[in-house]
Amino acid sequence: MDRRTLLKNTAMVLGGLASASVARAVLAGVDSGVAVKTPIFTALQREKCSVLTEIIIPRTDTPGAIDAGVPHFVEVMVSDWYTDRERQIFFAGLEALDQYCTDNFEKRFLECSAEQRINALEQAEKDIKDYKPETDGMAGEGEGSLLPGPEDEGKPFFSKIKELTVLGYYTSEVGATEELRYDPMPMEYTDIEFSEIGRQWSS
């Protein structure tokens, strides 16, 4: 699957365009194997991101987000590709999880049970329902472009972590080959029943 198709499919899953900074990075070839150029995460922030991405895409009969290297992908994107404002919103969102857990469970996010962590993330998801994009026009660089024109840097934290998790997973070898049943060179057109493979097919 080429990266433009990946971005388009991910945008459909997430219900909107990929943010400009993320789209540029993915089109430039950034994935979980790229080193962080400007490390800015603390150990606690890394651990939080690992927990959050695994909640969003847990290990089941297929590998989860951690198996696919998604936490590292998140760190690369936030550290090296996000704008200053996007970083501020992302890190504030991590702190807000601690505040929510302290207020409701009297302990910080990483000290909470799995059920309490999910509850905190569900609350973060609820908080985005009333969010309105800061720009009306999202025109890109041509018809069908995945790069928005005026950037909406103010996307809430939950939108950001979900976008990065989904993209990080499906740009990884694990996500593409095991979760999507990837066929790198199908060489022929074949009708394949969904019931035969059990999940989406990519090529």
Summarize the structure.
The protein has 203 residues and is mainly alpha-helical. The protein has 9 helices and no strands.
Structure description:
This protein is mainly alpha-helical and 203 residues long. It has one domain (3-197). Helices cover 52% and strands 0% of the residues. It has 9 helices and no strands. It is globular and about 45 Å long.
Quantity of strands, as a count? 0
Q: What percent of the residues sit in helical stretches (DSSP H or I)?
A: 40-55%
How far apart the termini lie comes to 5 Å
Oligomer: single chain
Q: Spans of 5+ residues with little confidence (pLDDT < 50)?
A: 136-150, 181-203
Largest sheet features: none
**H/E element sequence:** HHHHHHHHH
pLDDT averaged over residues: 78
Structurally, the number of domains stands at: 1
List descriptors.
52% helix, disordered C terminus, 203 residues, 9 helices, mainly alpha, globular
Topology at a glance:
Blueprint: H1 3-14, H2 20-27, H3 43-56, H4 70-81, H5 84-105, H6 114-126, H7 157-170, H8 173-179, H9 194-197
Helix pairs in contact: 1-7, 3-4, 3-7, 4-7, 5-6, 5-7
